[in-house]
Amino acid sequence: MARGQTVREGSDAVGDLAAVAVGTPATAREWPTTAPVGQHLGMAAPSRPAPTTSPTLTAYVAGTAILALLVAIQALLAGRWIAGLGQIEIHGHVGNASFVVGIVLLVLALVARLPRRQLWLAAIVLVLLFTQTGLGYVGRNNAEAASWHVFLGVMTFAAVVLQHVGAIALSRQARGGSGSSS
Fold first, then answer.
1. Cβ contact 153:72 at 8 Å
2. Tally of domains in the chain
3. H helix and E strand count, the chain
4. Which of 15, 28, 37, 65 is most buried, by the most CB atoms less than 10 A from its CB?
5. Is residue 48 assigned to a domain?
6. C-alpha distance from residue 72 to each of 96, 120, 127 (Å)
7. Could you tell me which residue, 173 or 182, shows the higher pLDDT?
8. What is the dihedral of CA 124, 142, 71, 14, to 10 degrees?
9. Is position 88 within any domain?
10. Does some domain include residue 134?
11. pTM
12. Which domain holds residue 70?
């Protein structure tokens, strides 16, 4: 939550998380306390059209789901390899596929003209995936890089889940829903 924002009583966590990811309150009476950045200086608030249901937005939502699944599979494959039950090469292939999906998602976010918060999140996820890929290759011969690879994998999964929740909220908003699951 941003400074000065309130959570309504009985709010649901997924709806609130979706509202934060999209950058809009789940209902009109939430978060009434601060003006958009720059507005207090007499600057006009940046205007972006409300998202519309489109094949690009649909592809973005599906892509974020696929990416979340791929990153979760990464954790499973890494754990199996650590336990001596799998081959790390498959983990690497899925990691490379995740990176490609991250590139596609950033392009889709730009083409769909998603809100700035989602654009930034798509860019941050891509940077995390790029870093993860590099640490994965370096970590083959360097324990320090491998330890950071595990930590960053957890952070990447959190960012990807936030990206997906925000994408779902945008899709609901475009269809005329409130953006929350309540």
1. no
2. 1
3. 5, 0
4. 15
5. no
6. 14, 22, 18
7. 173
8. -60
9. yes
10. yes
11. 0.70
12. 55-174
